Amino acid sequence: MSAARGGMSALVEAASGYYRGGGMAAWYFVRGKLRGDPLYGALLTKGLLSGRARIVDLGCRQGLLGAWLLAARSLHAGELGERWPEEWPAPPALRSYCGIDLNGRETRRGAHAFASLPPETIRIVHGDIRDVDYPPTDAVVIADVLHYIDYPSQEAILRRVRSVLSPRGLLLLRVGDAAAGVGFTLSKALDQAVELARRGRLERLYCRPLAEWQALLARIGFHTRALPMSQGTPFANHLLVCEGAA
Hints:
Elements: H1 3-17, H2 24-36, H3 38-45, E1 54-58, H4 64-76, E2 96-101, H5 104-113, E3 122-126, E4 137-143, H6 151-164, E5 165-176, H7 182-199, H8 210-220, E6 222-228, E7 237-244
Parallel strand pairs: 1-2, 1-4, 2-3, 4-5
Antiparallel strand pairs: 5-7, 6-7
């Protein structure tokens, strides 16, 4: 097995291990999500969060990103029985992770998963990202969240993010491209099906073409570059890597 494959396998095992206490169904869900979602691998193989110590995750669900970054720190330190692949940049020097989510059931699962860790390391907050205060941070991650929130609130959230980022801070924002045709239609249909299952009703989604997302971020004061982020899926997602304009 290559170092990269061995490393990924060790990461999935270590990160999903935090959720074993939540039952087999929860554990299998986490394993499948970490393996199947290209975002998690890209964060490490592309070094997107390298050098960032304080991370805020808006719409965190169960805090999978926190578990993933803890696992990366352990793999890099040689604690998981596999070596850190030489071709990967160093992982984040994680000092604190704060995840915020509106779904109380999900945040309770996350809090249970990390109950044995100091709260200053991993903190899961139940609350609405439109209202909860964000701590000062080096990087903010928002993945597949903003299209559930109305357009004025999207902009307000992004402005608040800009205000709490450190001078060289980073925003990683994954969005669907509403101009992408069939791939976007499939992802929107899936999102609506998930919301129907959770809430018992269809909710409006507030989507934008990729160019419109980039224009909004530019108005707020970000330089952005877009990375395709739906590999292995039929969707049309992009990760916007956003740094503050001078």
